[in-house]
Amino acid sequence: MGVVASIIRFLRSPTSKKSSPSQVALAPRESPLHWKASGRFPISAVGESFYKDSIRKIAKNFNGNRALVLCTAVLLLDDNNEHDPNAVAVCINTMKVGHLSRQTAICFRNVLARNRIDRLTSCDAIIYGGGVIDEFEFDYSIELDLDLEKSVICFDAQPTHPQPVTLPSNPTLLTHTNTEFFLRVPYIDRFTLDLCSQGCALTQWEKPDGSEIHLFAPRSIGGTGRIAVLPKKGFAELVRGWDEYRYLTVHKITGRSIVVRGGTECDPKYAFKHRDYATVAIIHIDQRNPVTATVGVIMVHIDMGKGNGKVTVGSRPHHALFHLADSDVDNLKELVQNADVLVSYDMESQKNGLNHILSEALTEKPWGCLRTFWKKLGNADSFHSLAAISDQCNVSPPADDDALTQCQTVADVLLAHTGKTKRSRTYMVTFLRHYV
User: Fold this and answer.
1) What is the pTM of this model?
2) Which CB contacts under 8 angstroms, 24+ apart, belong to 361-364?
3) Strand, coil or helix: what is 279?
4) Which letter, b or e, does each residue of 41-71 get, where b requires 16 or more Cβ atoms within 10 Å of its Cβ?
5) How far apart are alpha carbons 99 and 91 in whole angstroms?
6) Of 84, 119, 136, nearest to 5 (Cα)?
7) Cα gap 375→307, rounded to integer Å
8) Strand 294-303 and strand 88-92: pairing?
9) Distance between CA 115 and CA 379 in Å, rounded?
10) Splitting the chain (436 residues) into consecutive groups of 10 residues, what average pLDDT does each group show?
11) Any residues with CB less than 8 A from the CB of 160 and at least 6 apart, and which?
12) What Å distances lie between residue 81 and 32, 84, 97, 119, 363, CA to CA?
């Protein structure tokens, strides 16, 4: 009997005396395929409130504290579910803890069918919430590291966290000097993450009794958007010189974890946000043929007031196409070195490609992703491809076989005006200030 069939039969069978109704018997014949981790946890489970006891056993927050636990979730096709024939159950430590939403379950099944996967799969998961304040018990939330948008899915050799790992509830102080400090926040929720970008300025609020300092993302409303709470007792040395740190910014975002920087001066990495002009390198790497891989680059000098841009590369032509087989790497390095910001349509793939060509110090410059920016403007469903985005902005679409036209289309989209006249701001200034 296959492992999937045996688990589903167990779920639909009468309750065993040895197991609770939420317990799942995982057959040991084959390990689940584990979805490649990104650290972003874009999908939320539903129905967690029906499985509070099981989740509490996994999270082990019996004292009423808020849970924050990294773990592995197994995704089970629950074909015999009486409420939804397409249901997908979420199981952790052999216990059912929720389901995928109806829409997500259909999408998940379609991805498995398209990739011809007939085995169990698992993914990284995070459990948070479930705390008790003034006798009010909060619900748990479970988020899954599943990317269902990719046409081809990848798997890791093994789960990142085979056993549940509890994350610290408070930030960790990484470094601290008289002029700057760095704090690592282990996890922020998806709503707060959407308000943040690397280099964005944070706001602070001190509790009336003086016991805590709260840090908030930009554009936060009310109590939403809280990034971190610093108990003064736990950060006594840092708090002593707190008033000197006038610049509080997000220094780095890695998945759901962020590093906060505080400094007496602005972060040099994002100093362009405080200047009148910024130099932007728009990059596209064509790696379809690794022997003759090419990199297209367009340099744009941006007015940070209205976002208007002048395309220039100093004394060179404003377009540059590098054939890596012809040892153009040094010229490419020079351009990237002179840029304040690197921009591409798909940041993740382009950054990974550039890492193989240039030093990590260069690719660690601030990056901007047009696709992510367009999604956050509310266009996620209708305008996903670069060709579709260009069509919305009435600019020329890119040619599939030309790295430079890809760059030119990205430049044209970002330099398009948001209003009806050329006096209005371009998308570029909003992009650079809030999404880089």
Assistant:
1) 0.73
2) 362/333, 362/336, 362/337
3) strand
4) bebebbbbeebeebbebbbebeeeeebbbbb
5) 9
6) 119
7) 20
8) unpaired
9) 27
10) 42 38 53 88 93 92 84 93 92 94 94 89 92 78 88 77 88 93 92 86 89 89 85 88 90 91 90 86 79 80 71 44 64 84 86 74 80 76 73 84 85 86 81 83
11) 37, 70, 72, 124
12) 21, 6, 15, 19, 48
User: Could you identify the residue written with the tokens 């740190």?
Assistant: 245
Structure tokens at 290: 């690794």
> Burial, 302: exposed, middle or buried (Cβ in 10 Å; 0-12, 13-18, 19+)?
buried
- Written as one string, the DSSP assignment of 212-268 is EEEEE-TT--TTTTEEEEEETTTTHHHHHTGGG--EEEEEEEETTEEEEEEESS--G
Two structure tokens written together for 34: 């584990």
Listed in sequence order, the residues at least 6 apart from 75 whose beta carbon sits closer than 8 Å to its beta carbon are 32, 88, 89, 90, 91, 100, 108, 120, 121, 122, 123, 144, 146
DSSP symbols for 68-106: EEEEEEEEEE-TT-SS-TT-EEEEETTEEEEE--HHHHH
Q: Which amino acid is at 432?
A: L
DSSP 152-204: S--EESS-S-SS-EEPPSS-EEEEE-SSEEEEEE----HHHHHH--TT-B-EE
Do residues 72 and 161 make contact, with C-beta atoms less than 8 angstroms apart?
yes
Give the C-alpha separation, 124 to 73, whole Å: 6
- Beta strand 33-35 with 88-92 is unpaired
Report which residue type is found at 352: N
